[in-house]
Design goal:
Blueprint: E1 4-7, H1 13-24, E2 28-33, H2 37-47, E3 50-53, H3 59-73, E4 76-81, H4 96-124, E5 127-132, H5 135-139, H6 145-165, E6 170-177, H7 183-186, H8 190-197, H9 209-220, E7 231-234
Bound molecules: NADP nicotinamide-adenine-dinucleotide phosphate.
Length: 241
C-alpha cells in the first residue's frame, strides 16, 4: 500500500503543485483548504486528489479533520505544512488582528497539524514532516513583522522537533522558498517585477511551484532518512542563509 501524504493548503498555488507531485511519485494524497470551495472542487476534478476543508488555526478542527482523513485513506505518514497567509502592514499600522491571523495560520497551524499526528508517527517508527517557511522568515521583510516572525518560528519549530523525532524514524525539515511564480505574483506590476524584484534574484527569474514540489518529494522519500532539521533554501540564490 502506498504511504498517505497530507498537504495543508494543498488545493492551489504551491500546495497544489506539491499535492500533484506527491501523487505522481506514488503517494495517496489528501489536500486541505480553508474556504475556497470552487478551487478545491476544480482541483479534485482535475487531479482526483481528495480535498478537505478546515482551518489549520483551530486545534480541534485539525484533530477531527485528520481523524476523517485517516478513516478514509489510512494513517498519515507524510505531513506537509504548507497553508499560509499574509496580512502585510508597516508595523506602526499593523493591527493585533493582522498579527493574530498570521500567527494562527502560519505558526500555530503547524503545531495544530503536527501534534495530533505525532503519536502515530512515533508508534509506527516512521514519519516525514515538511514545513513550508519563507525567505522572509530568514531575512525579514518590510511590512511583514507578523509573517517573518511566524515563518522564522517554523524554522525553530523544525530544528527542535527534528531532535525529538530522530530516534523514532521521523524527519522534520523546512523549505524556505524565495519568490515563486504563483497567482500572488501576477498582481505585481511589470515595472516592479523587472526593476525591483528580478534584479535581486541571481538566477534571473522567479521560481516555479514545481521546483518547491520537487524538494518536498525528495524530503518525503524513504531515501531522505538522514536529512533532518535542515532548512532548504529554494530561492534562486537571492539569500544565502
Ligand atoms: N508564493 C510565494 O512566492 C511564496 C514564497 C515563500 C513562501 N511561500 C509560502 O508557501 C505557502 C503556499 O503559498 P501560496 O503562495 O501557494 O499560497 P496561496 O496560493 O495563497 O494558497 C494558500 C493555500 O492555503 C490555504 N489556507 C490558507 N489559510 C488557511 C487556513 N487557515 N487553514 C487551512 N488552509 C488555509 C488556502 O485555502 P483556500 O484556497 O481555501 O483559501 C490555499 O489552499 C505559504 O505557506 C506561503 O507563506 C510562498
Amino acid at each position: 500500500m502506498s504511504r498517505v501524504a497530507l498537504v495543508t493548503g494543498g488545493s492551489r498555488g504551491i500546495g497544489a503543485a506539491i499535492s500533484t507531485a506527491l501523487k505522481e511519485a506514488g503517494y495517496t494524497v489528501a489536500a486541505t483548504y480553508a474556504g475556497n470551495d470552487e478551487k478545491a472542487a476544480a482541483f479534485t476534478a482535475e487531479t482526483g486528489i481528495k480535498t478537505y476543508k478546515w482551518d489549520v488555526g483551530n486545534y480541534e478542527a485539525c484533530a477531527e479533520g485528520i481523524a476523517q482523513v485517516e478513516a478514509d485513506l489510512g494513517p498519515v505518514e507524510i505531513l506537509v505544512n504548507n497553508a499560509g497567509i499574509t496580512r502585510d502592514a508597516p508595523f506602526h499600522k499593523m493591527t493585533p488582528q493582522q498579527w493574530k491571523e498570521v500567527m494562527d495560520t502560519n505558526l500555530s497551524g503547524v503545531f495544530n497539524m503536527t501534534h495530533p499526528l505525532w503519536p502515530g508517527m512515533r508508534e509506527r517508527k516512521f514519519g516525514r514532516v515538511i514545513n513550508i517557511s519563507s525567505i522572509n522568515g530568514q531575512k525579514g521583510q518590510f511590512a511583514q513583522a507578523n509573517y517573518a516572525a511566524a515563518k522564522a518560528g517554523d524554522i525553530g519549530f523544525t530544528k527542535a522537533l527534528a531532535q525529538e523525532g530522530a530516534r523514532a524514524g521521523i524527519t522534520v525539515n523546512v523549505i524556505a522558498p524565495g519568490y515563486i511564480n504563483t497567482e500572488m505574483m501576477s498582481t505585481i506590476p511589470e515595472k516592479v517585477m523587472n526593476e525591483v524584484i528580478l534584479p535581486q534574484i541571481p538566477v534571473g527569474r522567479l521560481g516555479e511551484a514545481s521546483e518547491i514540489a520537487r524538494a518536498v518529494v525528495f524530503l518525503a522519500s524513504d531515501e531522505a532518512g538522514f536529512v533532518t532539521g535542515s532548512t532548504m533554501s529554494v530561492n534562486g540564490g537571492q539569500y544565502l542563509a
